[in-house]
Amino acid sequence: MYNILAGQRGVAVQTYKLNNGLEIPAVGFGTWQTPAGEVTVKSVREALRVGYTHIDTAAAYENEASVGKAIRESGLPREKLFITTKLWNSDRGYDRTLAAFDWSLKELKLDYLDLYLIHWPDAKDKEKNISSWQALERLCKEGRVKTIGVSNFKQQHLQPLLDAAEIKPAVNQIEYHPGFRQPELVDFCRQNDILIEAWSPLGSGRILQDKNLQAIAQKYNKSVAQICLRWCLQNGTLPLPKSVTPARIKENYQVCDFVIAAEDLQFIDALPEFGWSGLNPDSVPF
Ligand code: A2P
């Protein structure tokens, strides 16, 4: 379902094709842990300036208004951009989901979204996930969001949703980086035509000092961050690197002018687990 044009030497950042036929830019700009206000406005504006067209935010990040401001200030036409936000846990359920969506659009000052995700599954109440999902389906049918998906859903959360869904989730955004690649979940999603988006593709910075990754980075004359992002792309996943630092924002977008050889991809795949956030969707306290 996905194309891996991004895996070819010299090809600029490309797109993945979603299970509804729409295209999504293969590298997105993450804004988790970016404080609202000037920091978000400046970093998103910088990202848009250097070429990102895909921005990922969430109601829970409390920076949607600042993301929206940066989008307006960029002067870029809305249709050139791909904007994602997410439903927070306290807004689960059909009616609350519809209201939360309206609130997010108002914060962003947008009239439609490209992608709306359920941020975390309700691990104890699958009916709640389904009623939230039905609200997302309605929003999709009304054209207020082009694509709908989930985040942090494991197989046991996804299967009931797939069984009940009229519109299948197109995306599952999960923690994914060298040292934490959740292979069974990734395979399950792939079998169901669900694109994996990688949050914390740099392990939120925790994996950047790893000696093995540093050796590979040296071999390709790239930064460890670029190796992590390139590894995501060559594994058919969509990385969402976050940075508030202009040089890093640019560096993280320059990941399409080299190819990691198969043996090095396999070496990274085989690294023992490290750098996990510790956030387990079945037991997060929020
Ligand atoms: P900062 O925002 O201060 O630039 P992730 O995307 O996995 O959540 O990682 C984000 C973390 O990694 C942030 O602390 C960010 O710092 C840092 N970071 C982002 N890009 C790079 C890079 N190219 N080199 C080093 N650190 C980076």
Automatic annotation (TrEMBL):
The active site is at Y61. Substrate binds at H119. The keyword DNA-binding does not apply. GO terms for molecular function: oxidoreductase activity, acting on the CH-OH group of donors, NAD or NADP as acceptor. InterPro entries: AKR, Aldo/ket_reductase_CS, NAD(P)_OxRdtase_dom_sf, NADP_OxRdtase_dom. It comes from the Bacteria. It holds the Pfam family Aldo_ket_red. The keyword NADP applies. The record marks K86 as: Lowers pKa of active site Tyr. Residues 27-271 form the NADP-dependent oxidoreductase domain. Keywords: NADP, Oxidoreductase. Belongs to the aldo/keto reductase family. This is Aldo/keto reductases. It comes from Candidatus Termititenax persephonae.
